[in-house]
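Hi C.,

You asked whether I'd gotten around to modeling the 548-residue construct. I have! Everything is below, sequence then structure, no commentary in between.
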Amino acid sequence: MKDKEKWVRDHAVTPQKLELAHQILLEMANGASLGAAQRRHPMPGGQGVLAKHFIVAEYYNMVESGQLEENPALLASIRMKPVRTLSGVTTVTVLTKPHPCPGDCIFCPTDVRMPKSYIPDEPGAARALENDFDPFRQVKARLDSLEATGHPTDKVELLILGGTWDSYPREYQSWFIQRCLDAMNEVESTDLQQAQAWNENAGHRNVGLVIETRPDRITPAELAWLRGLGVTKIQMGAQSLDEDILKLNRRGHSAAQTLEATALLRAAGYKTVLHWMPNLLGATPATDRTDFIRLWDGYCPDEIKIYPTQLLESAELFRYWQNGEYQPYSMDELISLIADLKPTVPEYCRINRIIRDIPSYHVVEGNRRTSLRQDAREEMLRRGNVCRCIRCREVRGQQVEAGQLRLVDFTYDAAWAEEHFLQFVTPDNRIAGYLRLSLPDEHNPARRARMPQDALERQQALLARIPDLQDAALIREVHVYGQSLGVGEELSGAAQHRGLGRQLIERAEEIARAQGFGRLAVISAIGTRLYYESRGFERGELFQVKRL
């Protein structure tokens, strides 16, 4: 309980903290920088500087009481991590309750208070523990916190963590998502279907729903079930694509199963995030470099998370290290490895993360630095290399001139599909918006003839489960970048609200029609259904579909 008590203590609003915030704001109103004012008014007892959300709370108190004139520029200067919403969508992370994991991986930490692989003082895990893993309370607390720090919350991607999703009973899955939506809707529903219907017009609309699972748990039946829940993106722990490494680390599935899973997910329209771990037992920097290249041969994830193995005492891997059978990479080796890998990532993929949010004091040996991404970037700059991934090319706060944008169709082959990554880019190759269009091989006679029989049978089993996808090309994602704006708001120079999404959809329709597809299906999120209806898509059983 100490972790929970510490979390509560650190986040509690007290008169003492508000007084510190008051003094900081007075100095800032007279021209001082936030950092300088924070340092002049530190927390007592050597506890560092006052967190920004307390300063924002006192700002609103002072404005309401007339002690301070409303000052948007001042508020913007204390806004916590504005990059969180510069992509146009606010992510809210929640954790499911502790539950047995079907895996037996040697590198995962184990804490009975948490779902497998999580520890109590990771930021998201700490919030979950504080709220007793209650989905409603977790979402509400996070939305309140984001709003208190100046972030718009009308467009929310819900990220549900907690290990293998389908190991939880289906009743729990439905209830968990229903209660998340209830918090976003700010009203109690009677069932999941009602919560989904209300969210279509809610103040906090769900524009993406993400769950975690394993490659060996992906089946046509499971994908149909997930679609009914409103899921649009799947995170999977590939960890490695080397069969020997997978066996050594007792991952419990093969690389072939990962390939099958990514192909089936793509055929069902889902976006795919793969987790990949360098420095597993048996790996070397050289084998990791070879393994990473395999990601772009058929697997072709839309997003990746690179998680260098961190040696934790609660993981079985710790015993291998004690016995001299395992050695973490040095910092120089790790930085050099990441700097080698990033330039090889194709432009249709986004590198979401390069480290876990595990506090350094838990790491016995190996990487403890939170700056690994920055360190690798500096090494790449020294070498004269660049990363082409989506994250490194997002326009974010950059002003966008619509007349200077060009539409690029980056086409690539994935397992059993032809993929089109349609992107609007600036003259300096910044990405202002994109669409993922998938053309299943099952529809194309020439490409279908090259499909293995078992892959063809799985695809056909999927179509039997989800008739919406018959004779359909698939839009798997539409995303327009820029400053995150409220629905209906306009901002000069922002990429959003400039018709880019409409143009991307029209181009996708042209491509699908030219390839002989009779229909175009979109894996819409709950809060985007009305948008696609306005674009001529009709509601099917699990997808929205437009006849071409």
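If it helps when you're writing up: The chain has four domains: 2-78, 87-213, 225-393, 402-547.

Thanks,
B.
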